[in-house]
Amino acid sequence: MNWAVGILLVTALVTSVISAIIGMGGGILLLAVMFCFLDHGEAIPVHAVTQLASNSTRLIAYVEHIDWRVFRRFALGVLPGSVLGAVLLWWVGRAEASGPYLKMIVGVYVLAAPFVRQSKSASLGKGTWWDWPLLGFLAGSMALTVGAVGPFIAPLFARRAFVKERLIATKAACQVLTHFVKLPAFLILQSFDGASFGILMPLMVAAVIPGTLLGKRLLRYVSPKMFVVMFKIALVVAGLKVLIVDGIFKLTCND
Q: If you write DSSP's letter for every residue of 171-219 in order, what string do you get?
């Protein structure tokens, strides 16, 4: 099992570098690798703790670029959404067949988002007041069942003209909140026993910290135009992964 731990640690390091450069993609890639060694009930909580550390480090590294107004609006929806998410976690635990359908919907959304034409107000960073609370509610409700919600919330940041440090920082702050609200639900529902993972979890947490700092140093060599291109590519890759691997493939296997 030592080689598996090594693979998970290297993956945590590399994916944290990716997330620190383009603001997304690392979490869902890490979760995909974790599913190769852990079952769903184990992978989601370990992933939540690891990503909480990764996003917290990213938040601290980019704290001066956070759009706190957006964060506050997002937070309004996350807390009530997490209550619904706890109910969904209990329900999905009793109806595992529903999981692939939910992920297929998310995959289609993530794939379509980069190609939907922006409105003039969106391209200027404006929008309706309720879009961030609604996104927070949906993210909070999906965080416990889908796991990596980064690709789900990423399109709205891109469509509101968030680029480079502003996007990475604000998105990291929002994701810290979504990962944080998972932990009480896991404890209440008794769906996770942290002691059973021994040293794996703290090692993975330790791995994402230097990865985030390295990614921040590399970001200075990425132009805003290149950042937008990389971000859209990451959305397409993440959308295909969720739609095909987590959705269609698993649905086919279940049949």
A: HHHHHHHHHHTHHHHHHHTT---GGGGTTHHHHHHHHHHHHHHHHHHHH
**With contact defined as beta carbons under 8 Å apart, do 192 and 45 qualify?**
yes
Contact status, residue 21 vs residue 213, Cβ threshold 8 Å:
no
Q: Which stretches does DSSP call E strand in 140-180? A: none
* 8 Å CB contact between 207 and 34: no
DSSP string, 71-127: HHHHHHHHHHHHHHHHHHHHHHHH-TTHHHHHHHHHHHHHHHGGGSPPPHHHHTT--
Angle between helices 26-34 and 40-61 (to 10 degrees): 150
Say what the pLDDT of residue 125 is. Answer: 46
Angle, CA of 40, 234 and 155, to the nearest 5°: 90
pLDDT for 11-64, tens place per residue?
Answer: 999 999 998 998 877 887 888 788 778 776 677 778 878 888 998 999 999 999
CA distance 241 to 55: 21
Tokens of 201: 């979890």
Cβ burial of 96 (10 Å; 0-12, 13-18, 19+) is: exposed
Rounded CA Rg of the chain: 17
**Quick check: 158 and 246 in contact, CB under 8 A?**
no
Q: Which two tokens stand for residue 237?
A: 């890759």
Query: 80-100, pLDDT tens digit by residue?
Result: 888 887 776 666 554 455 567
pTM tops 0.90, yes or no: no
